[in-house]
Design brief:
A hairpin with a 5-residue loop joins strand 5 and strand 6. Helix 6 packs antiparallel against helix 8. 33% of the residues lie in helices and 14% in strands. It is α+β, with helices and mostly antiparallel strands. It has two domains: 112 residues, Peroxisomal Thiolase, Chain A, domain 1, CATH 3.40.47; 90 residues, Alpha-Beta Plaits (2-Layer Sandwich). The protein contains eight helices and nine strands.
């Protein structure tokens, strides 16, 4: 991921620097893929490096390299073939298996330069026998993974989790809390213990928190509960309105409008 401002002098020198560092390790059949998010969203000035970093994280997670738009004719001053460099013009799957590694760099107007090297979380954790939450999609899997799934460990018993509650009116939040508390009460009475492998409700609570946040319609009124165990969640849900501590918020009636300002290098924008 290059700084890539699109200038004749800047791009040529940047690609020459990349070539000196990486071209000797590449071949004509295994070129180094290069791009810049500025071709998609323009120059974000002080935030340009962060935009590139976010793009790199998405590439590592999904294993898909986005195209660089509007590429019609490559800069003839850059020795693309000799330096074994290539600009993706279509969405490109990550070309190799195993560890994914990507670098990004940014050059500040005041002389502050940075170069970051990033590895994908799944393989980084796997090699070091570590656990951690991540969303890396690997070729051998058909869905995003949490580290607890990819490394074979069940969720810990008493990890605090956030349970999102939603309703169309403020009063409905209380009804949702009561309904969920009743459901959990019934599970405890009927089963006397949680389903096999749930580790005292740990797996069940993880699935419940995910479902409430990601598999429910987003309604106007929202609040949340935080709990580590089924009993703790039931206790929190049964609190009356006066004792309910978390805020109850109403979403905007219409989505916010987003505007982009492309101001070049900034001297003319004040």
């Amino acid at each position: 991921e290059g700084h890539g401002t699109g200038t004749q002098a800047g791009d040529t020198r940047e690609m020459a620097g990349i070539a000196r560092s990486f071209s000797q390790h590449r071949t004509a059949s295994e070129k180094l893929l290069v791009g810049s998010v500025k071709a998609n969203i323009g120059h974000l000035e002080a935030c340009a490096g962060l935009a590139s970093l976010i793009k790199c994280v998405y590439i590592l997670e999904t294993g898909m390299i986005p195209p660089t738009p509007s590429v019609r004719r490559l800069n003839p001053k850059i020795s693309w073939e000799e330096w074994h460099l290539e600009v993706p013009t279509t969405q490109t799957p990550w070309p190799t298996g195993g560890l994914r590694r990507i670098s990004t760099q940014g050059f500040g107007y005041g002389g502050a330069n940075a170069h970051l090297v990033l590895d994908d979380a799944a393989h980084y954790l796997e090699v070091r026998n570590l656990r951690g939450h991540h969303y890396t999609l690997t070729k051998s899997q058909n869905r995003r993974l949490l580290a607890t799934e990819s490394h074979g460990d069940s969720p810990k018993k008493h990890v605090p989790r956030l349970f999102l509650l939603q309703a169309n009116d403020r009063g409905g939040l209380g009804r949702v809390r009561a309904s969920l508390a009743q459901h959990l009460d019934q599970l405890q009475i009927l089963n006397k213990s949680w389903p096999p492998g749930s580790r005292d409700g740990g797996v069940y609570l993880q699935n419940l928190a995910y479902t409430l946040a990601s598999r429910r319609s987003h309604l106007k009124w929202q609040t949340y509960a935080v709990a580590s165990t089924p009993g703790e969640l039931i206790e929190v849900l049964k609190r009356n309105d006066d004792a309910w501590e978390t805020p109850e918020v109403r979403r905007a009636a219409s989505p916010p409008r987003l505007g982009f300002i492309f101001s070049g290098h900034g001297a003319q924008w004040k």
